[in-house]
Amino acid sequence: AQSVTQLDSQVPVFEEAPVELRCNYSSSVSVYLFWYVQYPNQGLQLLLKYLSGSTLVKGINGFEAEFNKSQTSFHLRKPSVHISDTAEYFCAVGGTASKLTFGTGTRLQVTL
Amino acid sequence: NAGVTQTPKFRVLKTGQSMTLLCAQDMNHEYMYWYRQDPGMGLRLIHYSVGEGTTAKGEVPDGYNVSRLKKQNFLLGLESAAPSQTSVYFCASSYQNPEDTQYFGPGTRLTVL
């Protein structure tokens, strides 16, 4: 069985400040991890994914995530956020038949 | 290249009515998925398909049926809508490997009164 925990439902942050969105996972199969972003009234789009190899993964819009096997975590970070980063962020773990198990999401609210 | 499209974008139903949501993809993807998104619950898989003519149940399949008669289309049906099915429905598609990205449609907002 697989599960994803996103402990923070909302993260408020000022523009140009750094941000970390936390994700912990549980999986009994090979670990493929994803971060998706959902802008208001839109579908989800891929930010980045971890398949294997380097534990630091870089994605679009300046985001990066670090895979930590011992802590079963895949936290998302950005050193300096912009107003346009305001969105909901979902962590997901891949499984059989390429199915994704999603976390409950973290709403990032960037203000001036 | 339109990607994944969903029809309709919005719909209001009365309890007991039926409807079909259409998902279409032009990327020649083998796998397709239907999710529902509810506040505070993330996305939950309703049904999925690993190829034309095949369907399988996901995490929350009750009250829904699906069909994949053509590779590019995946239909989600509600035979007798209930208020608990008020949600935003997303379709997604991908190639057949676990590491492949799922591409999402823009969603359908359904309200059941």
How would you characterize this protein structure?
With 112 residues, chain A is mainly beta. Helices cover 0% and strands 52% of the residues of chain A. In chain A, strands 2, 5, 6, 10, 11 and 12 form a 6-stranded mixed β-sheet that branches. A 4-stranded antiparallel β-sheet of chain A has the order 3-9-8-7, with no helix packed on it. In chain A, a hairpin with a 5-residue loop joins β7 and β8. Chain A starts with a strand and ends with a strand. The mean pLDDT of chain A is 93. Chain B is mostly beta strands. Chain B has no helices and 11 strands. In chain B, strands 2, 4, 5, 6, 9, 10 and 11 form a 7-stranded mixed β-sheet that branches. In chain B, strands 1-3-8-7 form a 4-stranded antiparallel β-sheet, with no helix packed on it. In chain B, β9 and β10 form a beta hairpin. Chain B is globular. Chain B starts with a strand and ends with a strand. The mean pLDDT of chain B is 95. Classes of the chains: A mainly beta (112), B mainly beta (113).
Annotate the secondary structure layout:
The complex is a heterodimer of chains A (112) and B (113).
Chain A: E1 3-5, E2 10-14, E3 19-21, E4 24-26, E5 33-38, E6 44-50, E7 56-58, E8 64-68, E9 73-78, E10 87-94, E11 100-102, E12 106-111
Parallel strand pairs in A: 2-12
Antiparallel strand pairs in A: 1-4, 3-9, 5-6, 5-10, 7-8, 8-9, 10-11, 10-12
Chain B: E1 4-7, E2 10-13, E3 19-25, E4 31-38, E5 42-49, E6 56-57, E7 65-67, E8 73-78, E9 87-94, E10 103-104, E11 108-112
List keywords for this structure.
heterodimer; A: 112 residues; mainly beta; six-stranded mixed β-sheet; four-stranded antiparallel β-sheet; 52% strand; B: 113 residues; 50% strand; globular
Gyration radius of chain A, in Å: 13 Å
Low-confidence stretches of chain B: none
Strand content of chain B: over 45%
Radius of gyration of chain B, taken over Cα atoms and rounded to an integer in Å: 13 Å
Distance between the termini of chain B: 36 Å
Structural class of chain B: mainly beta
Major β-sheet profile of chain B: 7 strands, mixed
Number of helices of chain A: 0
The multimeric state of the shown protein is heterodimer
Q: The biggest beta sheet of chain A, please?
A: 6 strands, mixed
E-strand count of chain A: 12
